[in-house]
Write a structure and sequence with these properties.
heterodimer; A: 324 residues; Rossmann fold; 8-stranded mixed sheet; 10 helices; 31% helix; globular; B: Rossmann fold; 2 domains; 4-stranded antiparallel sheet; 13 helices
Chain lengths: 324, 330
Amino acid sequence: MHVPDVLLDVRDATRYFAVRRGLWRFGAAPTVKAVDGVSFSVESGKTFGLVGESGCGKTTTAKLILLLEAIDAGTIRFRDIDIASLDGTALRRYRKSVQAVLQDPYSSLSPRMRVGEIIGEPLRAASDFTPVSRRERVGELLTGVGLRSDAADLFPHEFSGGQRQRIAIARALATEPELIVLDEPVSALDVSIRAQVINLLSDIQERTGVAFLLIAHDLAVVKHMSHSIGVMYLGRLVETAAADELHRRPLHPYTQALLGAALPAHPDDRHQTAEIAGEVPSPLNPPSGCRFRTRCPMAMARCAETVPILADKGAGHHVACHLV
Amino acid sequence: MTADPLIEVRDLKTYLFTRRGVVRAVDGVSFSIREGETLGLVGESGSGKTMTALSIERVLPQPAGRIVGGQVLMGGVDLVGLSEAEMESIRGRRIAMILQDPMSSLNPVMTIGTQVAEPLRTHQRLDSRGLHDRIKEMLALVRIPAPETRVREYPHQMSGGMRQRVVGAIALSCQPRLLIADEPTTSLDVTIQAQYLRLLEDIQAAQGVSILIITHDFGIIARTCDRVAVMYAGRIVETADVRTLFDRPLHPYTQALLESRPRLDVRRRRLAAIEGQPPDLRSPPAGCRFAARCPKATTVCHDRYPPEVTVDNGHAVSCWLVVGGEHARA
């Protein structure tokens, strides 16, 4: 029996945003429940993929983990310690252990800093580096992501999108993190470059044992890279399972809809695609009960009345649906 | 489907004259689209696929973009040689463009009705009653519920999916023969994308229009196209009907692109990545433009550009391996 080595545990994480209104404010300010009771965990050395459409709360979830947003309710524990309780040295150590690679390598790297400074910056905080040893380490990090070590002397604009994403990955690796949050790491890249970066990330995971929290909307990318997957809809997690299991046996109608809407791999499969009607409702005024019910082809009266909870259906497959 | 091409692009060359040099964005591109057919032009960013589409509509970025050679033949007329005034009567009426992102192509301060009316006012003489009927007819065609009330709304009052339909209605209002659908590289959500592709299919079924889809995504090609042209560094390297291209790709670039896709239906431990970068189109290599990244390249590949060889009915490829190999029959 596989005993999971839980690195990061997210329990009932909740984040509300108050919506600012104009001059005539009557009653309570409306709130957007961006993340509403989300629970999942990331194992050491493994990849957890979080999928869902824009506005589903996957990026806000990442920001909670990166301490870029404050959690309103629930806990996030890293190696069994609540990250909200961290301060001083412990907080600094956490920030070193958890790094991020963002979608757009054009805006995530400072255009005024040389690549060597960008990658070396996180190392400055660590006192055990001299300028010489820091330069050596930057060189190692660059070759580790398939770039030449003399790239350190250049500026980001001298690199293509794929190379910039390699620089961002090298920077994230500088502090030898245990977890890297990858927010749409390849969606801005061209097809032929995308495969290079995906392969690089799996090589790095194999080599360093780092865990990934992968946030993406492309199901094929998420399935390829992840060990387990969580599907989010309007701030809630509707299904989690091992990657293969989720594709073989999707239980939630939304997961089924996402897989059904995915583009075919071959023209002969084009008639298998089926789309769901409608669009994601406004998070300001989400549907009662199950939030997917307004688009669900199988919705019943009960779906409007009670919120389905994420329940274990065996073999680590969790689903929040009254039908299942 | 008749065999007559609706539009024929012959040896099109579109260069961008920039301060940093002349970029040969489109460098000798030829293809044709038949009546009612959907052709996919697939390639990576910088391959020249969007510049090809903009050349057909003659809406190149100014002052840098210029068509320096070739023809775009439609109904016996070469669009490249037309004056701007003559081109005005083609745009919107014979050829229309539809963008995947509806927010960037709708005017936020004009009502839906006014925007659908605009091409009709430009190209067709209709009295106000005829115009009104036509607008409602177009909105109904793209399945917008309650068109009578929708015409008075502004884009922000509609959902994203509805706005996409409005863009479709505008593009179709003058019954164009060719619809160019340019997909941006940033992706839409899967369920919204599926709805957009369904809209294109509905439009084609209703009006029999030919569609040119510009994309980097083989999933979109698999889903929508009859035929495909693969572009690399300003040139078309392979053209085939969609099944042939997926089942029997001949160009190493096409093969590599198909192999590098992460897939839902196949388990792959590693993706077959194409190493390296596309060439700088200010000084493209003399030989095959993919040679530097091609694992099968030989000396001749680096020296001379391969001639296009037709291996089968409609399956054409520019690769020395095919020229010299058993497939050659041309």
